[in-house]
Design brief:
The complex is a heterodimer. Chain A is an alpha+beta fold. Chain A contains 21 helices and 35 strands. Chain B is an alpha+beta fold. In chain B, strands 6, 7, 8, 9, 10, 11 and 12 form a seven-stranded antiparallel β-sheet that branches. Classes of the chains: A alpha+beta, B alpha+beta. The interface between A and B is large, with 130 and 108 residues.
Chain lengths: 908, 690
């Protein structure tokens, strides 16, 4: 120190006091590291919190906030509101359509005159208005809101003084300033399309429904005299000049006798069907034939003692919503029922309870399958019909005459005798509920509730189907098959490497396998899709046979090995044994490559009759078993039963092959196995034989172990292997026969139609991806078993194998298990391999030759295209949460087991 | 049994089951299978990747039907359903044919290797196989002179013409990439400046600003409290003063009275006038540059070559729309007399092709050219991720090992972090997209989401609460009871951090840095890009780094630390001079492993930033050099894209293999480095421990 004299004069502890700067830096370092460390840990843990925050709104119902309250005397036949919710237009039977500004409650001076009518039908989705006149004629037209975007220069000085967002009532509509220089004018317009006045139907109309399907305007009506008809007005726009001409044809409805007058008539399924509903709940359905609507069926829509209060078709016109006098809304769907054998019927899908008063007001949304129901006590509820989610609820005035949902589903109105009440609505995510994400949902047009993932709909009327179950299933399926391949290989390899491999070799092998753990999975995915998949496609039978033959070849060689002369078998170095194994493997591969195709043709041979069926040389069967008559589709079990009688199914028709026109089987390049897998032809027997061969081999092996228990003869291993293989074949045959006799078919379980990008390939490559990690961790676990235990075991006279099996393996078991769990976690989250090597089809079957879609691949495929903040986006985040949860549970249990294992091995 | 035991004590033969021969053999098979699969995979990648650029002879194939064509044997397969067949690469896409063609072995009549056939690699439309027939030169008037005719003459004359063409190409490229790109950039910034000015002019007068006088007072308070905090030694007062300083500093920053004023119409007019003149000037220079490029192109167009396809007799055309005009010499990248080449020639060609592959930009939907931008993208992502992950990871590890009280909380944290290392990478991708791109990026671009923004008063209340909690946390961590209240201190600081984040996302004072571009419909940071991709990967690899750094720190013997303390070093000095140097190899291993994982990870990149074709490199020779908002290309994503999304999958196949080879080499090299460091580290500590 420089000024040492001064320093030395101070007391001892003062001399060695650290400098201020050192203390300051120490303090700063402590705060920075503490803060930084905590922040990093918090950030890492914050991931799941953030994901949950994004997912949370999915579980929430929509938000309803009260809007305007306008006093206006209304007596509406129907009412509509424009998409910006500025104007509400009310049609009254006297023939006036009045518009009211929702902002100010002012009435628009100019009202539309459409002439008096007795019944009206208005379709909000197409704007088609059909007015039944007192004289039984029908006027058809289009009622819609027109929106003009105007500039400041288009307006006069007084009009342009609005501030942004302000609304002003004009003579014919409303004007709103939307931006700096932009104005929007909304007016109601009516365009008459024509008059339908069929001479044959002359009594007044009591029920009418109209809708536009493509070029056809379809009007269905029932008259007082009990007659009914459907008028179809087809408009063809000529290509030149743009002039259009309309043609009207009338199809009578062949009404069945009914004591009651109809309450409503509803067109369904693009006008191909219609239903006439009476107040007591009786619904008669009619189907269109060439010349008329013929009676199809009668259903009772409401329960005993209840009656129908209101009827409304749901968007897409496949379902009828029925409001009952008991306060419920029932969703009746037109579908090919499962129980009806493929015939269309009306099926009750769901019920929604509003309250106890009759549900007299119903209206549907134009955007999705949300509907609004109002009962006589003024309760208003909005539901999504498919998911059953309550979108919103409100208490309206008691005497509600009409309810309306805004076109953008951002608000709804109730019209009563006193006035108009409006609410603002944030619908949230109506298509998603916890049940719809995980349990079967009955989608429109389906036969029964199902688990479907289909995020992008083919057209607008189809709805997104967002069930996560197929994705979770796909993840599990891929993981299970990968584990089936990886775990035995990795653990066995680890046993060999830890217990039998010379140290010098081990120090080379282990890093090599470890390095594979960080090989980019995109490379493996590419190899799976581009090399493995075509290879498996071309050599399926050889690959499958190889999985059995190669281990069998090794077993055989292990039987031959002790027969080496003298003590050679025990004295040769380990590396010679390894080389022998390699040679045996190669031999096994060569054998399977050569016998694979032969075995394929032998086992799964397609006989002449099947050949004829495949080639289409068939004729209609004349004698059909009783049970099969009238069946629309045939299951695999049906096919097998029919096959025993010499009958086959082609395009859901029962046929007999014309075996005289034969195709030479040997010429066919197709692998019979692949044809068999499709389930078109072939008996279930060979599949069972092939599938049960390995279990049979195990059974036979256990039996063969008993041969010469205490003998040490050299030839014994060979005898045992030989006996097991010889016995396995008859055992497999017997077991297969039992399965067939029980009516089972393997093609309904883990076998099925072969596709190129399949689970088998994914299982192998993903197995390959997780082998290194399982291997390394298991090897570490076995290495950490103290050598004293091994020495004690060997010293007590146990062989190396006995030591490995009875000492090392049990001690290391929890470590190995934890390794397997970590591998499982890896496999479940793996993205690129499944993305590239499967077809990404979200199907739910165990077919090993079929495709799948995992959660991770689903995210990778769809997230880049999902709209930020939308339902789909949040559902994809939920996929992430589920994946996180799965791996978190798996990893945590692995970690806990590992900790336990550590403690135990520390005690040893 | 008992009978045996009493009589033969000397040699009981080991039962076969105990020997477990078949068991050993099966486990051996599993190991062999593992090793064989790994070696097979690496061999396949090496063989296919290395073989792609090797020149194969051009064959003239005559079919049974009498048809002949030129092609290069691509691969042969014996498919049980299709039989023995060969895939030929026939190129000549201009003729409307598929560039690859399967030919069944039984169809082929004879195969010859014509000496005069050449392979032409072109800048557009892929390769062309043909026989050179004429070299033509046009004069200014458009009259053609045939310079050489016949294959030998053409090939003899061609090199000098190509050299000239090459020079011209380099000149034009220099003008295009350097001068014109710069002009474009200036024009773009002018446009943004105008947009900004217009936007500010139409802003309503923002209320709530304090004005110069009050702002000055706050700034003075800030400075005063910093000075006082430095002087005053009373801990409580000091802490309070620090908080006041921080709060008033925030107030000073957000209340800048000169900011946020709308432009007056005169100011706007003057800005617009200035930009207009600048734009005029720039477009003049732009015109000049394009004229120079056009001049070079006109010169190029004078030298033409006819290379005839023997099958149709047509020559490689100038363009698709001018099929009767022979191609320019300058359109040729390389002309290869494939059947004349010796081994040396083939080798140099091979090297040249690899060089082109790693040094040039992709062409023809990534199936030709090189992967230079891809390599740059991969390296930059890896670099940024390392820069982000190593300090953070080490900091967290130091906290957990050196500062935190070892107890149940830290054990749980440790398990959780270990666990996070096993969370699928795609989940991090989802988080990155939502939080980084849309969340933080959105705030940087256009300010916080309007629905979240608080009113000015509310926001300041929030800030005051945060300050209060920070004060409590500071007092707690400074008091001697710190170690016993570890959890509470952590919780308090966590609450401060949370409040600070909330304050950032709800501030009424911030409207974003890139509002003009956002209005233009092109978010800057509010979309996927290099920065967010790196941060996502950093988060993904953070657990790996924390775990390995912690292990390395724990492995530094306690005796060394105690020695250091004994010599009077402070805690930080000990960490800085003893612990960190000792742990450095382990930390490095972790960092390299993180880099290797980051370089090979693709799934999150698909979501947060890697693209098929990035228009610009994320690296440029002007400030700030690394453009972290840009999208980028990545080797892993390139493999996925080439292998699965390429329109011409056969042409892409070779490139997939070479790209794979590059990526695998990169990853394997990083891993080998890590393994070497680890072995060295182990050796060092084993010798030093006892």
């Amino acid at each position: 120190m420089p000024n040492s004299q001064e320093q030395r004069d101070r007391p001892f502890h003062e001399q060695f006091r650290p400098r201020q700067r050192v203390l300051l830096i120490d303090k700063a370092a402590e705060s920075i590291i503490t803060l930084g460390g905590l922040a990093v840990i918090a950030a890492v843990l914050g991931i799941i919190a953030y994901l949950l925050w994004v997912v949370y709104p999915l579980t929430q119902p929509g938000k309803v906030t009260p809007g305007h309250q306008i006093a206006a005397a209304t007596e509406p036949a129907f009412a509509i509101v424009d998409e910006y919710e500025r104007l509400v237009s009310i049609a009254e039977p006297k023939g006036q359509i009045r518009s009211i500004s929702l902002e100010s409650g002012e009435q628009i001076p100019a009202s539309l005159e459409v002439g008096p009518f007795v019944r009206a039908s208005f379709s909000p989705s197409t704007g088609l208005l059909a007015l039944a006149r007192p004289d039984a004629s029908v006027d058809v037209g289009t009622l819609s809101f027109r929106t003009d975007v105007l500039m400041r220069s288009d307006l006069d000085a007084e009009q342009s003084t609005l501030t942004i967002g302000q609304v002003r009532t004009l003579d014919e509509g409303v004007l709103e300033r939307t931006g700096d220089d932009q104005y929007r004018r909304i007016t109601l317009t009516y365009e008459e399309a024509g008059r339908i006045d069929p001479p044959e139907l002359q009594s007044p109309i009591i029920a009418i429904d109209a809708e536009e399907f493509g070029r056809d305007k379809v009007v269905a009506a029932v008259h007082v005299d009990g007659s009914g008809g459907v008028m179809i007005m087809t408009t063809r726009r000529s290509l030149v000049g743009g002039a259009s001409n309309s043609q009207v044809r009338t199809l009578p409805i062949e009404l069945v006798d009914s004591e009651e007058p109809p309450l409503a008539i509803v067109l369904l399924d693009s006008g191909k069907e219609l239903a006439i509903i009476s107040e007591s709940g009786r619904a008669d359905r009619y189907s269109r034939t060439a010349s008329a609507y013929a009676f199809a069926e009668t259903s009772q829509l409401v329960g005993e003692g209840e009656s129908v209060a209101s009827v409304e078709p749901l968007l897409g016109r496949n379902s009828i919503l029925v409001g009952t006098s008991g306060g419920e809304v029932l969703d009746w769907m037109l579908t090919r029922g499962d129980s009806s054998g493929g015939v269309r019927t009306l099926v009750k899908v769901r019920g929604f309870r509003v309250g106890a008063s009759p549900v007299s007001r119903l209206a549907t949304s134009l955007r999705d399958r949300t509907f609004i129901a109002g009962d006589e006590a003024g309760q208003i509820r909005l539901w999504h019909a498919t998911s059953g989610k309550l979108v919103g609820s409100a208490q309206g005035p008691e005497s509600v005459r009409s309810v309306v949902v805004s076109p953008k589903l951002d608000g709804f109105l109730a019209l009563s005798a006193e006035g108009i009440t409006s609410w603002k609505l944030d619908p949230g995510h109506p298509t998603v509920t916890l049940e719809s994400l995980f349990l079967p949902v009955w989608y429109e047009g389906d036969q029964k509730p199902s688990l479907v993932y289909q995020s992008t709909a083919a057209d607008d009327s189809a709805e997104p189907k967002l069930s996560l179950t197929p994705l979770i299933f796909g993840t599990l399926k891929a993981t299970i098959f990968a584990m089936l391949f990886a775990v035995p290989i990795a653990v066995m390899a680890a046993i060999y490497s830890s217990e039998f491999l010379p140290k010098r070799l081990r120090s080379r092998v282990k890093p090599a396998i470890e390095m594979m753990a960080s090989l980019p999975s995109v490379v493996l995915g590419f190899i799976a899709a581009m090399i493995m998949a075509p290879f498996v496609r071309d050599h399926l039978s050889s690959v499958l046979v190889g999985l059995v033959i190669v281990p069998m070849a090794i077993l055989l060689v292990s039987g031959v090995w002790p027969l080496l002369p003298g003590n050679l078998a025990w004295r040769l170095p380990q590396s010679v044994q390894l080389v022998t194994i390699l040679v045996a493997c190669l031999l096994g591969i060569a054998i399977s490559a050569s016998i694979g195709p032969a075995l394929d043709r032998g086992l799964f041979a397609i006989d002449n009759r099947e050949q004829a069926v495949l080639a289409g040389h068939v004729e209609q069967a004349r004698e059909i078993p009783e049970w099969a008559e009238g069946k629309a589709s045939f299951t695999l079990a049906d096919r097998n039963t029919l096959r025993r009688e010499g009958l086959y199914v082609q395009n859901d028709r029962i046929v007999i092959p014309r075996a005289d026109e034969l195709v030479d089987q040997a010429e066919s390049p197709h692998s019979p196995l692949k044809v068999w897998l499709t389930g078109m032809v072939g008996s279930p027997l060979p599949g069972w034989v092939a599938l049960l061969f390995v279990p049979s081999l195990a059974i036979a092996g256990i039996f063969a172990m008993g041969i010469g228990r205490q003998s040490a003869a050299r030839w014994l291993p060979l005898v045992r292997v030989g006996v097991s293989i010889a016995m396995a074949i008859p055992i497999a045959m017997i077991l297969a026969r039992i399965c067939v006799a029980l009516g089972w078919d393997a093609r309904e379980s883990i076998l099925g139609t072969f596709t190129q990008r399949n689970t088998f390939v994914v299982g192998i490559i993903m197995g390959f991806a997780i082998i290194p990690i399982i291997f390394t961790l298991s090897d570490d676990a076995m290495q950490s078993v103290p050598n004293s235990l091994r020495a004690a075991s060997l010293g007590a006279g146990a062989t190396q194998w006995q030591t490995a099996m009875r000492i090392v393996l049990p001690v290391a078991a929890s470590g190995i298990f934890s390794a397997v769990m970590i591998g499982l976690g890896r496999a479940a989250g793996e993205t690129m391999i499944v993305l590239m090597a499967t077809g990404n089809t979200p199907v739910m079957d165990w077919n090993i030759f079929g495709g799948l879609r995992t959660l991770s691949a689903n995210i990778a495929v769809e997230l880049p295209e999902a709209d930020r903040g939308g339902t789909h986006y949040r559902v994809l985040f939920l996929c992430g949460v589920v994946l996180f949860a799965i791996t978190f549970v798996v990893n945590t249990s692995a970690e806990i087991i590992r900790q336990h294992f550590r403690k135990r091995s520390a005690m040893l | 049994m008992s009978d045996q035991n009493t009589h033969t004590l000397e040699l009981v033969p080991t039962p076969l089951r105990a020997r477990g021969t078949s068991g050993t053999w099966l486990t051996g098979m599993a190991l062999i299978a593992c090793v064989a699969m790994i070696l097979g995979l690496l061999g396949l990648i090496l063989f296919s990747g290395a073989g792609t650029f090797w020149q194969k002879p051009i064959e003239k194939v005559t079919l049974e039907s009498g048809e002949t064509f030129l092609g290069m044997r691509f691969r042969t397969e014996n498919n049980p359903e299709m039989g023995l067949r060969t895939l030929y690469r026939v190129g000549n896409r201009d003729l409307g044919q598929q560039p690859f063609r399967w030919v069944d072995a039984i169809e082929i009549d004879k195969v010859a290797n014509p000496q005069e056939a050449v392979l032409v690699e072109r800048y557009e439309w892929g390769i062309w196989l043909g026989v050179p027939s004429r070299l033509i030169e046009y004069d200014d008037a458009g009259n053609e002179t045939v310079v050489a005719e016949g294959p030998e003459a053409v090939l003899a004359k061609l090199p000098e013409y190509r050299k000239a063409a090459h020079e011209r190409h380099a000149r034009a490229e220099h003008i295009r990439s350097d001068k014109i790109a710069k002009l474009n950039h200036k024009l773009e910034s002018l446009r943004l400046e105008e947009l900004n000015a217009r936007m500010r002019a139409s802003d309503p007068e923002s209320p709530g600003h304090l004005g110069y006088a009050l702002w000055g007072v706050i700034a003075a308070i800030c400075v005063a409290s910093i000075v006082l905090a430095y002087r005053i030694q009373v801990p409580l007062a000091r802490r309070l003063l620090i908080l006041v300083a921080v709060l008033s500093a925030i107030a000073t920053l957000v209340e800048r009275p000169w900011a946020g004023r709308p432009l007056s119409s005169e100011q706007l007019a003057s800005v617009l006038a200035r930009t207009a003149t600048e734009r005029e000037e720039l477009s003049d220079r732009f015109g000049e540059m394009t004229a120079r490029v056009a001049e070079i192109e006109a010169e190029d167009a004078r030298y033409r070559i006819e290379i005839t396809d023997p099958k149709t007799g047509r020559f490689a055309a100038l363009s698709q729309s001018q099929p009767d005009e022979p191609m320019k010499v300058s359109q040729i990248i390389r002309i290869v007399e494939a059947n004349e080449l010796g081994l040396a020639g083939k080798l140099s060609l091979y090297v040249a092709r690899w060089w082109e592959f790693v040094s040039s930009v992709p062409r023809e939907a990534n199936t030709e050219g090189g992967v230079f931008p891809v390599i740059v993208g991969t390296l930059l992502v890896t670099l940024l991720l390392t820069v982000a992950v190593v300090p953070l990871g080490v900091m967290a590890a130091l906290y957990m090992r050196e500062y935190a009280r070892q107890g149940i909380v830290i054990s749980i944290l440790r398990v959780a972090i270990n666990n996070l290392a096993g969370v699928p990478s795609i989940v991090y991708g989802v988080f990155g997209l939502g939080f980084f791109c849309y969340g933080i990026g959105g705030v940087i671009d256009g300010g916080p989401d309007p629905s979240l923004v608080l009113r000015v008063g509310q926001w300041w209340v929030l800030l005051l609460i945060a300050a209060g909690v920070a004060f409590v946390a500071m007092s707690m961590s400074a008091s001697g009871l710190r170690h016993k209240r570890n959890i509470w201190v952590g919780l308090a600081w966590g609450a401060v951090a949370l409040l600070a984040i909330v304050a950032v996302f709800t501030t009424p004072y911030f409207e974003g840095f890139f509002r003009a571009k956002l209005l233009d419909g092109s978010p800057t940071f509010g979309t996927s890009g290099l920065l967010w991709a790196s941060l996502t990967l950093a988060l993904l690899t953070l657990p790996v780094v924390i775990v390995s750094a912690e292990e390395a720190i724990a492995a530094v013997p306690a005796s060394l630390r105690e020695g250091s303390y004994g010599c009077g070093a402070s805690k930080w000095q000990t960490i800085q001079r003893v612990v960190l140097p000792g742990a450095m190899p382990g930390i490095l291993t972790g960092a390299i492993l993180a880099m290797a994982r980051g370089a090979g990870e693709v799934a999150p990149l698909m979501i947060v930033g890697a693209v098929k074709l990035a228009p610009q490199l994320p690296f440029e020779a002007r400030f700030p050099f690394i453009f972290a908002d840009r999208s980028f290309m990545h080797l892993g994503f390139h493999i996925y894209d080439l292998g699965f999304k390429s329109p011409d999958s056969e042409a892409a196949r070779g490139y997939v293999w070479t790209t794979t080879l590059l990526l695998v080499t990169l990853v394997v090299l990083m891993n080998l480095t890590a393994i070497r460091i680890r072995t060295k580290l182990k050796a060092r500590f084993q010798s030093g421990q006892f």
